[in-house]
Structures are given as structure tokens and as C-alpha cells.
Specification:
The complex is a heterotrimer of chains A (231), B (260) and C (447). Chain B has helices at 5-10, 19-34, 40-56, 61-85, 106-132, 135-144, 149-177, 185-216, 234-253, and strands at residues 91-97, 100-105. Chain B has 260 residues and is mostly helical. A two-stranded antiparallel sheet of chain B has the order 1-2. In chain C, helix 3 (98-108) packs across helix 4 (113-126) and helix 3 runs parallel beside helix 5. Classes of the chains: A mainly alpha (231), B mainly alpha (260), C alpha/beta (447). Chains A and B meet through helix 1, helix 2, helix 4 and helix 7 of A and helix 2, helix 4, helix 5, helix 7 and helix 8 of B.
Amino acid sequence: MHIMEGFLPGPWWQIWFAVSLPVILYGIHKLNRMMEVKRDLLPLLAVAGAYIFVLSSLKLPSVTGSCSHPTGTGMAAILFGPAISAVLSMIVLLYQSLFLAHGGLTTLGANVFSMGIAGPVIAFVIYRTGMKAGLNFYFTVFLATAMADMATYLITSLELALAFPAQAGGILASFQAFAAVFAITQLPLAVIEGAITALIFKYVIQIRGDVLVKLNVIGEAGLRRIKEAAA
Amino acid sequence: MDNMLDDQALLSPLRHTNNYLKLIIVAAGLLGGISASSPVTPLFIALCMSFASVVFGAVPLKFYLKLMLVPLGFAAVGSAVILFFFGSGHEIAAVTIAGHHLAITSQGLNMASLVLARTLSGMCCLFFLALSTPMVELFSVLKASRVPDVLIELSMLIYHYIFVLLEVAVSIKFAQTVRLGYKDLLSSLRSTAMLAGTLFIRSWDQADKLYLAMNSRCYDGKLVMFSPNNPIKAPELLISSLFVLSIIALSFITGNPPLV
Amino acid sequence: MSILKTHDLKYAYPDGTQAVDGIDIEIETGKCIAFVGPNGSGKSTLFLLFNGTLAPQQGVVYVQGRPLRYDAKSLREVRKRIGIVFQNSSDQLFAPTVYHDVAFGPVNLGFDEEKVNNCVTQTLEYLGLTELRDKPPHHLSSGQKKKVAIAGVVAMEPEVIILDEPLSNLDPSGASEIMELLNELKHFGKTIIISTHDVDLAARWADVVYVLNRGQVYNSGHPSRIFADRALMENTNLKLPTIVETFREFEARGIAEGHAPMTLLDLMDSMESPYIGVRCAVADCTISKDQKVGLFMQEGTIVAVSDIQQRAVGIAMSDAGAGDEVLVEYVNGSLTPNTGRIHVVQIPRVIEGGSKNVDIEGIRALLDGTSFDRVGAMGTSAKVTAKKAEIQTDFEVDVIQSAMLSALRGLDCLVLASGGMAELVKQRVDERNHNGCRHIECTIEKI
């Protein structure tokens, strides 16, 4: 969920930039280090970033009739981990604001925090925990992605609530109100994107499962197990 | 897979105007708008920016208004929450929903209209930038601003591959549509997943080809390029200065110094 | 001197496909080489072995006599010398604008900002891409993309340029432009290697043809030797060039004789025989059947007139009115027309100032003063000059052959040629004259 340009007042828009910046810098540092070892990382990430952008510009059919767009952040986190996802998300968010008028420049900090940092971290943690616990692969992907979207939506509501606390009930009441209003679109989106992402992985495993092994998303043994389970 | 504003920007009459000038105007507009405490300044900014986009930038008015709809939708919803929950003071109106008593106070009304105005001005500034300055012009600005090289290189490559992948996505979507892939909710979901999955695999192969293409031309870790900047013309400078000064003046008049 | 050589090269892909199965080749500097073969015969793999992208499991690649080594520094050197243009331009272009993409190579070669700028500007001008300088690649047509891809490689000034299926996805005019470009590059001393399954292209363009089949070299040599061999064609699943097929039919009917021709000009030369019994002529006046008529060539057509004095003679096979076609049984005399002449005007190259340094009025005066039946333009600055002088050109592709064919039909040709190509025209005409073919007069003028 993007906060549109101009909606977030000072000092909040600056605060979220300050919060997100260290994470981004860490991501860039990690990126530089990884690229020294793996020279073909840059082309891969470039195409991945483009992929996430294009994914997020697809229109998802929604129950409520309005259309929404996937965030792509859950998938990015599972494929690349949260640090790199943060950097990619920032670039994708920038392009989304300039090319599609979704989001904004002053709100980039806040949007990066909710969509580029919080969401991917949740997705990554859930995915890794789920895989270690031996849960079904597709279920784990679904859960991780859906929870990432939920986290993004809740954090965005929090960002708005902090900037506009209610008279009666303060930040909490405001948070509840914002969350309630956006729930209509965001809850179905989380479920749908979770389902679609699981399906995407299903296709990828069928056709080019080796790609996921190369990216360290699953191990060789894991891939075999999943394929056998499906057969 | 909407109409991308960048394509418009590449054809804009404002494309070759000095980038720094445009960025200063946009920055002034964004900062002036977002720190305003009365709707007057943001509305003024919104008007000026829209005028600039539609008149100087030759953007069709209908297209421009349509662009506004989505962000205004979000702003409207957000403002509605603010309207009912924010502020104290005497009640202007009230409504009861599901047992909750929701009151509109004068403070709430002021804040809601302020937020709406600020979003309007912010979006107009963003549109002005997006419709007048293609991304390719901004890369050299980023380099000059000491943004880390790896970020700029990544951005440049991502920029190009967005269009490559979009083309693939459009043709897959069309191929699916003519075979009734989107006839109802369930098939739409399946088709979308298939599209995204195929796109992912193509992306992976594309990354391989990109690496090969870069290596065949001796890729050395350097991608960034320098490009000359365009001169600023006197009338442009005049109008821009007037604009910025007006913002500052209005901000003071309406009681809030800018850049809070 | 061989610029590229391989010895018993073998390479198999990770999935087991033996793409290259023992290939020995030797490529001479400055030649045009065509690798011909069906899909899957190993052409693309071979190219990736040439520039060190793939390392062979067996065998060696020699670049300028030295074996290719696979450390980073050596690979950089090789890729500086040997540039590859991939089949799909979308796989080759990746920068935000044309300028950035063409600059990519020079930047990587360590040039400073000014040198990069000069290099890119010159390359763009040379390829006629200056207007597209700031455009993003996704706004270009496939022909333009292909030219930009080539520009990106040319900007690195390699000695060898390899093009994998250069004409796929191009329309005929785009294809001719690219072939012209390749000929120009060859003229500047580059070694050009292409892969194609278009045998007609290989037949008329290449100096040496390698026929690949299933990862091996089936045969190699001059096109006239390769493409005249019917057995070779059958065994490798390739079809004969159309020119050769046509020639064989003519040969079977006794209309043509000699070596299998590779170009249209050669085909015409092979048909200069007096054995054709019946000709089709246009009657100049009313003619009756069995009337003896005089025949002569006018602007490439045979005309039949009633006056047989000092002309070739034939017997009309039917009645005909003026302007009608009439079949004539040829009796005796020489039907060969007076040969036209070729006059070449040398236009300075783009780097030497191009059309800006040309006296446009002078060129127009030349055209108005003397009568030329056909005008050709060869090279970028010549074409631009012709446009500026508002001269309608009749041919801009395959100019030398077209000029000679027209001259043989009795037409006078003016050829505007950029730089050294003017000499090339004269050289080719003189070669032909020297080989005993019908003499064409050729003069050069420098403007």
C-alpha cells in the first residue's frame, strides 16, 4: 500500500527517511561485498528489480471489484533476503512513483520502511522458519507473502496514525480507524497475492526448479522432495 | 501495465529544459506544500504545477485529470478518517456507525481539507516531474549528487529491463486473453500466476544474456556515464524564481515558514 | 596471416549436447567469412568459443597466432579485438539511451570522457544514428536496434566483427542497409564473420564459406566451389542458391555455360552466348510475319525495325503493330549493345567532413550538363550528398554490380562514392575488363 505524495506531514516524512536510511545503506554495503565475489549478481538483480516492478504493475482481479496490484515484496524477500530486497524495493518504489504515479518522493522513506523493509523481513523470517520446521513449501510461501502484505498494510496504517492521532483514543484509535478503512482492499490483496505467489513458485519449480536452487531458496534435496510430493 | 509516464516525458516539450531547474521547482513545490499550515499555499502550488504540465508540457487535460483520480481516491479515504477522528473543539456534525459515535469537529475539518490540499499539491508536483523529465535525464543528476554507483547502475539496468519485460508480459497476457484466460475470477488468478511464473523464468534467462552481453564488451564494473546539461533560458529562470518566491511569500502570509 | 584459428575444437553443453565436435578453421585478416549451416549446427557456440565466453573441453583457439588464455586480462584483450553482435538485438542493448549503450564499450576500454564522447559521436554519425542519440532502445525499430547493436561493437574498434544471423528480423531495406555497412567495414580492413542459413547471401557476399553440420566443418572454400557442388548441398540439408539453380536450368537448356555464377552479374556473363535462337523484341513499326527485320538494343530492350542496314538481322515470327511485342528468330549479326560508361565521383568521407565539404551546385551542374541514365550512391556521405543535391538515385545497394549491369545494357551511370570506395569501383571494373569480359569504361573524378 503506497502513501501518496503530500499526505504525510513533517516531521514524520523526514523521520521515516531517517529510519529507512541505515537499512538501505547496509543493503548497499552488503550488495557491494556480494558483487565482489559474484560478478554476475548485478545483471541478476537488475532483471529481478525489473521483474518486481512489472509484477507490481499487473492488475489483480479482486473480490471487491476494484483492482489492486501485487507488491512483489514477499517474493523478493524469499528470493534475495531482506537486505537486498530493501535496496531493490527502493528503486522499484521510485520508479512506481515516477512512472505510475503510485506513491511519492517525500513519502519514499515511509513507503520503503513499510514495503521495502518491514514486509520483506516478515516474509523472510516466516519463510525460513517454516522451511526449517518442515512445513509444506507452498503453504510456507503463501503464509510468508500474505503476512508480508499484512505487515506492510498494518505498518502503513501505523505511519498514518502516528502522523494523525485521534482526539479520543490517540494513536491507537487512529490506527484502528485507518486499518479498518483500508482492510477492505488490503485483506483480500494479502490472501490473493499469497495464493498467486505460491502458484508462481509452483510453475517455476515445475519448469526451472534449478533456478531456485541456484538462488539458495531451496536446497537440491528440498527441490526433489517438493517435486515428488507433487507427483 | 498502464501507460507509463516516462514515455510521455520522452516526448515532452520540456524534456530538454535544464534538469536542475526542474528539480528545484519541484522541490520548492513539494516542500512548500507539505509544510503549509493552510490550504492556500498548496492549492496555489497545485494550480501552478498543473498549469505548467498542461500548458508548457503539452499534456492533454483529460489524461492529466484521469491521472489525478487514483491518488485522490487514496487521499479522500485517508482524509475521511482524519475528518472523523482528528481534532477537538465543538462538533459541526456527527454520525453514528455501528454503535460508534463519529463527530466532525472544526479542527478535524480543517485538517482534512489541509491534508487533501497538500496531497493535491504534492501529486501535481510529482506529475510535473514525471511528465517533463524522462528517467534517462535524471541518471546524470543522481551521479552528480554522489548517489552510490552501484545504485545508479542498478537503476539504469532496471530501467531498461522494465521495458523489455513489459513487452513480454503484454504479449503473454494477450495470448492468454484470446484463449479466454481471463473469463472469470478463478481463471484470471490462474492466468496471472502463469504469466508471472513465465515472466520470472524469462527474467532469469534474460539475466544470463545480459551478463554475456556485458562481458562481451569488456564489462569492468563501470556503467555510469556523464552527459552534458542544458543551458537555462532567461524566461524559464524568471518564471521559476517568481514561483519559488510566491511560495515563500504565501507561506509567510498564511502563517507558517516553509521547510518545517 | 590468420587472425583467428582453431585446432580440433570440441565443446559440449552441460546437458550433454555436443555442439562443436572437432573444428579446424583458419580465418585470414580482412576477409568476409560466412558460416553456413542448419539450426543447431554449432555456429553460435563456435562464436562464443572465439571470444572466450565458453572454454572448449578439447582443442585450442588461436587469436593472432597466440593461444587464447582464460584469465580475466587475456579475456579482456580478446574481447577488445573480437566483437560479437548477437542475433537478437534486445539481448545486446541494455543501457537507458543509445548514447549510453554505444559508450559502454569505450568506457570499459578506459577512455577519458572527451575521447568517449568523440568516439561515440563519430560512430553514431558513421552509422547514420545521430538523431537517435538520446532515445531509449525500447523506442527503436528492429532495424534501428540492430544498427545500434553494431555501433556498440564498432565503437570498440575491434579487428574482427562477428555477427550471428545479422539479417534475421529485418525487412529487406533494413537488411540491405546492414549488408552495405558490413561491406564498408570490410573496406576499412576489418575481418567480418557472419553466420547465416541464407545461402543466397553467403553466395554473393562471402570470400570464404564454411559449411557446418552437426558440429563439424563439412566443407570450406570459395562460394563458387562450395555452392556449385550439388552433392554437398544434399548431404547437409541446405538448398542451392537461387542464382545457381537458375543457372543450372539455363545450362540444361543450352542458354548458359561455364562456372556456376554466384552473383547476378556472373549469371549475365554466363549467358553472353549467341546460342539463343528466338528473342522477344518490341516492334518499332508495323511488321508482318516472315519479314526480315533489323534488331538493336535500346535501353535494355531489343527493338525490331524494318531497316536492316548495318544491323543484326532476324525474321519476325508473327504480325505486329508498332509498340507490340514480337518474337523474332535471330539470324546473324551482333546484338550486343554499345556498352555504357561508369563515371565515379568521389565524395569526402564523413570523418573528412562529408557532404558539408561538397560543392552541391557543382554536382547538380555535372548531372545537368552530361546525360546519365542511372545514378548510384555508395556510402553514407554520398547518400547524404545525393539527398542534399536533390538527385534521385536509382540504386544505393550493391552499387558496383548494379552499375556494371546497367552499363552492359548500354546505360551511362554516375556513381557517387564516399572516400576510398570510389577507387574500389574502378578497381572492380578494371578487374572485370582484365578478365576478358566485355569492356566497360570507368572514370573517376574527385570533388
